[in-house]
Amino acid sequence: METQQNSLQENVKKLVEKIKDIKIAMLSTSDETGRTHSRPMYTHEVEEDGTVWFFTGKDSRKSREISRNTNVSLNYSDPKTDRYVSVSGTAVLSDDQNKINDLWKPILKAWFPGGKEDPTIQLIRVEPEEAEYWDTPDSNVVQLIGFVKSVVTGKPYRPGENEKLDL
User: pLDDT tens digit string along 140-149?
Assistant: First the structure.
C-alpha cells in the first residue's frame, strides 16, 4: 500500500513538473449531445497535489457544460521544448472568494470589469485523475540523427520520454 502511495505521489510530482511552466491549456468539455468543445485557458495555478485553477464567467458555455458533465481534459503544449501533456480529470465550479482573491491579477479586469467582486466571476478547479506526457528534450539535430538511424536500422523511432500517469 505504501509503495502504491509513493508511486501516486511521484506521478503527481512528475505531472506538476511537466505543466507548471506551460501557462496555456486547451480545456475540453462536452455539451449535452456529447460533442467536445475545446478552448485555450490561462492556467492560474498548479498546486502541489496537481489541482489546476482557471477563471471563467458563470454564464459561459464551459461553465454550463461542466455543470452537466464534470469530465474534462486539459492539453498542454510547449513546442519550444517538445513537451506535450494530456490530463483527464474532474472539473468543479467554485465561487470561493478567498481563492479568487488569492489568484486575482489586474489583467483579469478585461474579462471581469467589476474586479475580484464581479458577480459573474467563477473558478474552475480541475482535479487530475490520469495524465500522459511526451517529452523530447533533445535538440532538433539530435532528433534528426535518431530519426535517420531509425530509418537505416529499421527499428522504431523513440524520440524521447512517453509515460502514462495514474493519479
Answer: 444 444 444 4
What phi, psi does 160 have (nearest 5°)?
A: 160, -150
pLDDT bucket at 156, cuts 50 / 70 / 90? low
This prediction's pTM? 0.83
Query: Domain holding 144: CATH number?
Result: 2.30.110.10
Domain residue limits at 155: 2-166
Number of compact structural domains in the chain? 1
d(CA 41, CA 150): 37
pLDDT tens, 44-56?
Answer: 999 999 999 999 9
Query: Which residues, in sequence order, are CB contacts of 136 under 8 Å at separation 6+?
Result: 82, 83, 143, 159, 160, 161
